[in-house]
Amino acid sequence: MARKRSIAKVIYEYSLHYFPVPGRAEASRVALALSKLPWEDVEVSSVGYEIMKNSGDLPWDMLPILKTPFGTIAESSAILRFAGREAGLIPENPYQAAKVDEFIEGMGPLARALDSTFGISDIKKRIQLRKELFEPQGAGTFNLKLLSRKIAQSETGWAAATDEMSIADLKLFTELFGLFSGNYDGIEASVLLDYPPLLEYHSKVSNEPRIHRYYQNFLKDEIRWTFHPDAFEQQKN
C-alpha cells in the first residue's frame, strides 16, 4: 500500500510529522504504509518545526511525532513499534520480539553517528569530519563492521534473526542505506563495497515484495534511490 498524503476534504485519523527526508521517520512511514491505518505523511519545514516546538506540540521537543486519535506519540522507536504492531511486523514469539527490541536499541550508535556534524556550517570541515567517521578507526566504520557481523550471523538473513521481516529490518534498512543516498555530503556510497553481507542484506530487503512495491512509488533518481533493488550495482562496477 502506498503512503497516503492529505487531499482536500479528507481527514486522516493518524498523521506522521517529520522533515521532508527519509531520516528517522522512514521506517515508521513504511510500517504505516503496510498497516491498515488511515494515515497521512506531513512534511515539516524548519520554520514549521520551530512553530510546533514553541506551541508545545512536541512532547520531547523533537520530530518525528505520530498524532493518533488517542494522543501524540513521540520518539522514532516508539512510533515504529506502534506502527509495526499494526502492520504485523512484531513477532508473536516473546523471545524473537525481545531480539527485535535488542537490535533496535543496538542501532543507537549508528543513528547518532552524524549528530555531531549537523551543526557545522563550514562545509569543508563538515565533509572532513564525516569522511573521518568511515576511516579505519572511525565510529562509522566500527558500526558498519558490527552490523555486517550481525547480519552474517543471522540464520534467517533478517536483522534480528527472526523468522520473518520485522520492524528491526525496517529500521536497519532505511537508516543504514539512507546514510549513503547523497543527502549527507561527505559520505560516499562506495563505502559499502567493503561490507558484502550488508549489500546482500540490502538485496534481500529491497526485493521483499511489500518493500519492493512500496518503493516503486518513488523515482530512482530522488532521495530514496538507495531503497531500490539495484541501488548499489553501479558502485560495484
Structure description:
By secondary structure, the chain is an alpha+beta fold. It folds into two domains: 73 residues, 3-Layer(aba) Sandwich (Glutaredoxin), CATH 3.40.30; 143 residues. 45% of the residues lie in helices and 8% in strands. A four-stranded mixed beta sheet has the order 2-1-3-4, covered by helices on one side. Helix 1 runs parallel beside helix 3 and helix 1 packs across helix 8. The longest helix has 15 residues. The two termini are 34 Å apart. The model has no long low-confidence stretch (mean pLDDT 92).
Name some characteristics of this structure.
237 residues; alpha+beta; Glutaredoxin; 2 domains; 4 strands; 45% helix
Protein topology:
Blueprint (H helix, E strand, L loop, with lengths): L13 E5 L7 H9 L4 E5 L2 H9 L10 E4 L2 E4 L1 H11 L7 H13 L1 H5 L10 H11 L5 H15 L13 H12 L17 H11 L2 H7 L17 H4 L1
